[in-house]
Write a structure and sequence with these properties.
elongated; membrane; ROH1-like; 406 residues; transmembrane helix; mainly alpha; transmembrane
Length: 406
Amino acid sequence: MPATDYQGSSPASLTHFGRALFSLRREQVHSISMEGSSFEAEMESFQQHVTDRFLELSSVAHDDLLSLSWVGKLLDCFLSCQEEFRAIVCAQKTQSLRPPLDRMVTDYFDRSVKALDVCNAIRDGIEQIRQWQKLLEIVVYALGNQRSIGEGQFRRARKALADLAIGMLDDKDSNASMANRNRSFSRNTGYKDHHHSHSHGHSHSSGSGYHHRSLGHFRSLSWSVSRTWSAAKQLQAIGNSINPPKANDLVASNGIAMTLFIMNSVLLFVMWALVAAIPCQDRGLHVHFTIPRNFSWAAALLSLHERIMEESKKRDRKNSCGLLREIHQIEKCARSMNELSDSVIFPLTEDKEREVKQIVQDVSQVCDALKDGLDPLERQVRQVFHKIVRSRTEGIDSLGRPTYAE
């Protein structure tokens, strides 16, 4: 502004103008500082949320660990963490487009794609458990609703138990046959996506076209798992190069690198726990977690990892097709029923009949637990699948369309 504009101004007016200018600059600096403080608070809140959720998961009693309800809580934990993580990354969109954060965000999305096949394999495992449930229901129907138990009812129950034993064999052939029936969660949404894209006007078609092409890309990646697909190798691929961020990366990313490390670790643990609990192809639990224990959220997560590994090493769980509590209950009930059926002599004595009915009652309780828990669990796995797809689609869309010039 030309100096002549102020030639007629009094010293008092110049002083007032200087104070106003200083006040404006101070408010701008304060605004930037407040914005930074708010973002730091969001990241701290995210870390605290992860800590609280895993403390809750690790506080369960031994008998409840790896139960259907516990696995459901684990997936709830992932979904809420993923949503908070997405909000943090979206809030720092410009920062996420610059090195080194752009590479870190892309790495996370690449890991999440690998998790989609795990979700598909877990869905097949849930379906496999449903088949076992149906066989147990045959046992309950044959032996539980009879005034007197005869040889014919026992023969039918034995046949169901024999089929159950075959179905629970955890070998490569049975796992490979399951893979052939695998279908992606998004497979049945093709018509909806197609119809949705044509129901909008021409002006919207270019934007939605990118979205639908991205979903189509995911279908091609996760349509099914092949005969040679391995859950163990997939977990290794997800966990590859997950390391705590270096100091210079933390500084360059304004701390977001730590948020990414946390989310990578949560993703790996959740997928690992699913593979540990649910039958799937070529299960393997030897995954290394490179998480320093001094992180507030790490202690509970690593404690859960140790407890699950200890469970997998127990004598009666080593050869199990899954560490899910309800699978263990199926195995125990089937073992008890088989031992009993080998020793029965007809007609049954009253004591032997009471023993049979007690075991049948135990089997019935397992059936009820499966009936109540499998459907909600499958819905949650489907939610995880679609949440990963949507988050990555949004992320790639953002990274592929920069809003600033370098």
